[in-house]
Design brief:
It comes from Scleromatobacter humisilvae. The chain has 399 residues and is of the alpha+beta class. It has three domains: 3-85, no CATH class; 106-321, Hypothetical protein af1432 (Orthogonal Bundle), CATH 1.10.3210; 329-396, no CATH class. The chain has helices at residues 39-46, 54-73, 78-82, 106-118, 125-142, 144-157, 162-177, 189-198, 204-211, 219-239, 244-251, 266-284, 295-303, 312-321, 393-396; strands spanning 3-5, 21-22, 28-30, 51-53, 329-332, 337-342, 351-356, 362-369, 378-382. α7 (162-177) crosses α12 and α11 (244-251) packs across α12 (266-284). The two termini are 21 Å apart. Mean pLDDT is 87; it is low at 96-100.
Length: 399
């Protein structure tokens, strides 16, 4: 797919989009028919590079050419014609049957969450959050390994929109690992996933700023970091959330105590799992001040509690993900560097695709490797900063 830059003047508040807004790779951020509802959401989109599909841009160009032709027939001054801009309001609107397309892919879900978190207002805010959560879980259920590959790779390579992407990643991790916990009940998944998505609700912009900050935290930033769980819970209650398990998990996602999981209340169980998934995901993510950790280092953080003892919630997480989850880089016995694309029943032998040869040069053609064979056995994880190849994830998903 070919995309071209979309001028921000093509975006309007309160009007369904007549085209899809995309990122530089062509992935949908906001689908055709979606509506930008507030100035905050508009500012968020204007703060980043946005694109439009070439075919949809041709529709814009045709409308623009018709606009110029009409101005010429009306003998409009040439100066005004020269300064004219495309009239995006004249583009045909989506039909009622296709009012809001919902392409279930991660860039779209990440952007939708970001727009919800920066503007937690409106009578339907909770309903929109639940719809988004349902879309997230549907995409995970469709292909768990694909979900992990996309989110693991994104977490270890990007810190734009860090706060929303991190919360979405934690939601996916917790939803996948929760059934491994002793005594887990299906009804707890609802507050678990919603709390994961909203745990940093009052901290979104500050958390994004901290990810891009090279220096130490100021005293004000330390205070915001310390207080944000309580402020997030208070804001959720103000919006209308009355689920005590959801609110408790948000309030205690940094303070849920360590120790055996048996006998804990449901809300304490949820908070503890979120805390471990939060720490694991954070270690995989780079900051301006430090590179991302390797998956084995992140796994160690998840497996050991604050006192250095084995943590049951962390065990559930790593048992679900494996030592080398999809989306991470690994070194093979032969010297190649590969990306993990799928988990297997053997934690140390995932399905991988080699992208860097033993000489350190990128392979001309990615090669699927059987890690059960001695020459292709995984010898360890590789930190993302050590790999200079940018993988084609769409291609790797087909391996």
């Amino acid at each position: 797919m070919k995309v071209v830059p979309l001028p921000s003047e093509g975006l309007r508040i309160g009007r369904p989009l007549p085209f899809s807004v995309r990122d530089g790779s062509g992935a949908v951020l906001l689908a055709r028919g979606s509506t930008i509802e507030t100035s905050k959401q508009l500012e968020l989109l204007k703060s980043r590079a946005i694109f439009i599909d070439m075919a949809e841009m041709e529709s814009v160009q045709r409308a623009y050419n018709g606009q110029l032709d009409q101005m010429l027939r009306q003998d409009v001054a040439l100066g005004r014609i020269a300064s004219a801009r495309p009239d995006y309001d004249s583009l045909p609107m989506p039909g009622a049957a296709k009012a809001v397309e919902r392409p279930l892919d991660w860039p779209n879900l990440q952007m939708r969450l970001r727009m919800l978190l920066v503007n937690p207002n409106g009578a339907d805010w909770i309903a929109r959050l639940r719809t988004l959560r349902d879309d997230i879980l549907a995409l995970v259920e469709r292909s768990p390994d694909r979900a992990l590959m996309r989110l693991m790779y994104d977490a270890s390579n990007e810190f734009q929109d860090y706060s929303a992407n991190h919360s979405l990643f934690v939601c996916v991790l917790a939803s996948m690992a929760c059934t491994q916990l002793p005594g887990w009940q299906a009804g707890w998944a609802e507050p678990l996933t919603l709390a994961s998505l909203t745990m940093n609700l009052a901290f979104t912009q500050t958390q994004d700023d901290l990810a891009r900050q090279a220096g130490p935290l100021s005293e004000m930033q330390k205070g915001a970091l310390r207080d944000h769980p309580e402020r997030a819970a208070a804001l959720l209650a103000e919006i209308g959330v009355d689920d005590p398990m959801w609110l408790h998990a948000v309030r205690h996602h940094h303070t849920a105590p360590s120790g055996p999981m048996a006998g804990r209340s449901p809300e304490e169980t949820i908070a503890r799992l979120i805390r471990r998934a939060d720490r694991y995901a954070a270690r995989l993510s780079p900051r301006k001040s430090r590179p991302a950790s390797s998956p084995t280092a992140a796994a160690q953080v998840a497996l050991l509690d604050e006192g250095g003892h084995t943590d049951e919630a962390g065990q559930a997480l790593i048992r679900t993900l494996g030592l080398y989850p999809p989306g991470v880089w690994v070194k093979l016995q032969c010297g190649e560097i590969a990306m993990v694309v799928r988990r297997t029943a053997i934690a140390k032998a995932p399905v991988v695709v080699s992208l860097v040869g033993r000489t350190g040069m990128p392979l001309a053609v990615p090669a699927l490797r059987n890690t059960r064979l001695p020459d292709f056995a995984v010898t360890g994880a590789v930190a993302p900063a050590q790999v200079k190849v940018r993988p084609n994830l769409d291609l790797l998903e087909k391996a």
